TrEMBL record:
GO molecular function: peroxiredoxin activity
UniProtKB keywords: Signal
Domain (Carboxymuconolactone decarboxylase-like) ranges: 69-114
Protein's name in the database: Carboxymuconolactone decarboxylase-like domain-containing protein
Signal peptide start and end residues: 1-17
Signal is among the record's keywords: yes
Annotated InterPro entries: AhpD-like (IPR029032), CMD-like (IPR003779)
Amino acid sequence: MFSKSLILALSLAGATAYTKKDREDAIKWITEEKGFPHLAAFDKMTPKMLKTVMTNYLNLVSPDALEFLTPLDLEVIWTATSAANNCEICLSFHAGALLGAEKPADEVATMAAGGVPKDPKMARLVIAAKYVLAHKGILLEREKLHLSSMGFSAEELVEVTFAVGQMTGLNLLYVHLIAEGVNIETFLKGAGPFKDTVYADELKKAEL
């Protein structure tokens, strides 16, 4: 049975109006207080949704959020997941984060193209993420055995599955926003999957 407080909360939930200041405050919170660049995608979210989305994200990348996976591990998993889900915004952002962490550009490009890097530590995370995605969280017995040979425990795979699921949800959101006309920032284009084709001329001009 649901508690009375939960029923009351559900009954009060719904669309509410927000002001221009509410939006400005939410943008200021994420850019000035949390240090994120102002993405055009943020302007398509309601202020409350933006704060909820970004609070959840920041909680995930805090150093002690998970037992096995570090924030950098998450960037690897999220790059692989975003590549598989073809989310340009997320893929570009997380590939850029890996480049910022001084991961080799060719390895990051391989992941952005949906491949497996040579680095053993990153490769095991990418392979695990691919298996989790392949069957929507279900791992076949032979896949479990293979991942076990790479040092994965059952508990670590639960964390990988959680990380993949969280990013898949964000991929759905940002692909939707791209489809609704959200522009991609130039700094994202330089780390993304279309840097050498669709955006090549634009990026060359930006360098001049």
